[in-house]
Amino acid sequence: MKWTEQEVPGQRGRVAVVTGANTGLGFETARVLAERGASVVLAVRDVEKGKRAAARMSGEVTVQALDLASLDSIRAAAAGLRDRFPRIDLLINNAGVMYTPKQTTRDGFELQFGTNHLGHFALTGLLLDLMLPAAGSRVVTVSSVGHRIRAAIHFDDLQWERSYSRVGAYGQAKLANLLFTYELQRRLAAHGSTAAVAAHPGASDTELARNAPALVRLPLTWLAPAITQKASMGALPTLRAATDPAVLGGQYYGPGGRFEARGYPRLVTSSAQSYDDGLQRRLWAVSEELTGVKFPV
Questions:
Q1: What distance lies between CA 228 and its chain's CA centroid?
Q2: Pfam families recorded for this chain (predicted)?
Q3: Assuming Cys at both sites, which of 70, 162, 229, 291 could form a disulfide with 262, CB separation 3.0 to 4.6 Å?
């Protein structure tokens, strides 16, 4: 089956929060959800860009300031969302950075790990009690095929203070997204209402790879028409994970084509280490300690 955005069921009456929704995959995800009737919040670092993105969408779309590289900003955004909504049905943890030069967040975390994993971990924990009572609610976290590339959780140097690899740090962050999803689903299973699901966009033509080393970026630029797909296609696994009634908690969706680089979304599997219960629990404990956020499950 070629699962397209036309398969997204009506979302009227539902509230969806999409991080990083002013461009690329997040924009396409938010656009479709809004067109299907959801009340969509674009949770973005640059509010003016968010407003311009919202103006290009149809439906009920609002903007919330959110900088995932700042725990203070995350707490303020969560407080703002709690003031505006009695419940949240969909939380799409989409925003991210990739292959950045060595930098830290405002709280001193390595930028890719701090933004892609710890930021979304904290946001989810601060909003989850608004989701638990909502029937069919889902937390969808966007990972990457990069979770297989030079990927490990470096518990002895999570912030890459001794040495730094752009690719390794990205792999760690994207692996962390999956470990987080699977452990969250294990904790949610007893509640029976909210599900945690993961997705990846394959090789999508977005701004995300702008920081890739030249050795990677230039071939991608030359070969882009042959090996990448549009952001609207790359968003389909996320949309399916968020809205397909047949999706189960703990599943992972990605493109169905060769090497999962392109194609319509289907159920896929992640790396062996992403399913390691011990890693999941250890990362969870460390993430709670680093962020100061405790989950209600």
A1: 19
A2: adh_short
A3: 229
264 is catalytic: no
| Spatial CA neighbour of 112 closest among 165, 43, 44, 75 | 165
Interior/surface letters 180-211, b for 16+ CB within 10 angstroms, e for the rest: bbbbbbbebeeeeebbbbbbbbbbbbbebbeb
Cβ atoms within 10 Å of 100's Cβ, excluding its own: 16
pLDDT of residue 223: 46
Q: What is the dihedral of CA 24, 143, 236, 70, to 10 degrees?
A: -40
Mean pLDDT of 30-38: 98
What integer is the mean pLDDT of 266-274? 98
CA 130 – CA 119 distance, rounded (Å): 18
Whole-number Å distance between alpha carbons of 148 and 250? 18
- 């067109």: which residue's tokens? 35
Closest CA to 92 of 158, 164, 24: 24
Taking the model in full, what pTM does it have? 0.93
Name all domains of the chain by residue range, CATH numbers in brackets: 5-290 (3.40.50.720)
> Which residues, in sequence order, are CB contacts of 109 under 8 Å at separation 6+?
118, 158, 159, 290
Handedness of CA 89, 195, 5, 233 (dihedral sign): positive
Q: How far is it, in rounded angstroms, from Cα 195 to Cα 186?
A: 9
Query: Of these residues, 99, 164, 170, 182, which one is catalytic?
Result: 170
Helix (H, G, I), strand (E, B) or coil at 3: coil
User: Which H or E run includes 226?
Assistant: helix 214-227
Q: How far apart are CA 53 and CA 50, in angstroms?
A: 5
* Beta pairing, strands 39-44 & 61-65: parallel
DSSP assigned state of 197? E
